[in-house]
Amino acid sequence: MPVLVVDPGGPLRGHLRVPGDKSISHRVLMLAALADGSSTIRGLSGGGDVRCTLSIVGQLGADVDEGADGTLRIGGGSLHEPAEVLDVGNSGTGIRLLAGMLAGLPFRSVLDGDASIRRRPMDRVLAPLAQMGARVSGIDGSTLAPLTIDGGGLTGIDYEPPLASAQVKGCVLFAGLSADGPTTVVEPLRTRTHTEELFAATGIDVIDEPGRVTVAPGRPRPFEHDVEGDPSQAAFWAVAASIVPGSEVVVGHVYRGPARTGFVDVLRRMGADLHHDPATGDLAVRAAALHGTVVGADEVPGLVDEIPVLAVAAACAGGETRFEGVAELRVKESDRLATVEEMLAAMGAAVHVEGDVLVVRGGRLRGASVRSHHDHRIAMAAAVAALVADGPTTIDGWESVATSYPAFADDLAGLRSGGG
Ligand code: S3P
Hints:
Layout: E1 3-6, E2 13-16, H1 22-34, E3 37-42, H2 48-59, E4 63-66, E5 72-76, E6 86-87, H3 92-103, E7 108-112, H4 115-119, H5 123-131, E8 135-137, E9 147-150, E10 158-159, H6 166-176, E11 183-186, H7 194-201, E12 206-209, E13 212-215, E14 224-226, H8 231-243, E15 248-251, H9 262-269, E16 273-276, E17 283-286, E18 294-295, H10 307-315, E19 320-323, H11 336-346, E20 350-354, E21 357-361, E22 369-371, H12 376-386, E23 393-396, H13 408-416
Parallel strand pairs: 2-15, 3-14, 6-7, 10-11, 18-19, 22-23
Antiparallel strand pairs: 1-23, 3-5, 4-5, 7-9, 8-9, 11-13, 12-13, 15-17, 16-17, 19-21, 20-21
The structure holds shikimate-3-phosphate.
């Protein structure tokens, strides 16, 4: 569906599940491919990004068996040189994490992706991999994809990335599994902790201390994993249910670990009525009047993917909201500082960018024609904003949503009919 038209309307009600967490999904596939034996994964994200990583582990020689109920069995442990280029599609997480894993494996591979991937910065992973002795190069002597990797012979390093990035941390730690000694990543600002959590859960020797993670070389053991719901997808419903009067929505079984639920804190601070159950992971949200807040730069790693939809919340809140230190948004699937600004401005919001700060002033939204710029989160954020606009909104490039949440429009229809 290249275009989605969303009419404003009544309350959202019901209980739903969102796709399995995308960050966890990539990592469990890679760990299952490395583990010597059969691993079982349930609840994997069905989005296009993760499907690409699934194909890639198959191309590398993992034995992939997908049951009718969605249960995946992956036989890993004997990976080999792939015959073809490995296509990550639209996935920055896929290419950066896989670059780390493949840098440690003793064969040549080439990682490529779509037009957006070919524009995104890869120097952030090429630099630490080079320090480890890896032979990884971009196209025509650049640091851009496609990346050619001649793997093997890595040295363990101590590395402090110049930016807060779980992808960089994950890349270096995956490479560290094949190094000749321990590898440490130092993080002044904590980023999502999936790599270290899943390493520990699969028997890898990992020391997770405040501000630093150290991994010893080794291989995971085969495992079973139920992937919890993706907080970044739950955030769309948290904002939608907050801003559409009379709404009451429960998103079931959402991941609760650190550095992913910053959006819950920010929405609460804005006056939202939401509860993330520590026992079940259920996220319950009821409509509430929101007011503006300041999102500090130190909070950004914990909600970096949620800023487009939090900007929609801000556009519906009383007063001004400032998102500080959000320069990283410029190098996501689209330049999200520009694309969020364009989308909200088209819908009549008072929004502007001051250096690395996104400023949004709340008010009435109008129905408009908006462009996703092939960015799934811009498309879904626009669909949420459209629920409270004064007329229909047409979202161009809706197909991009398939990279992370193919059933978004169906789930929206379900909540609108009260069924969830
Ligand atoms: C991710 C880390 C974040 C996030 C991305 C997923 C991960 O990227 O934006 O969607 O799974 O490690 P950065 O590490 O570039 O901040």
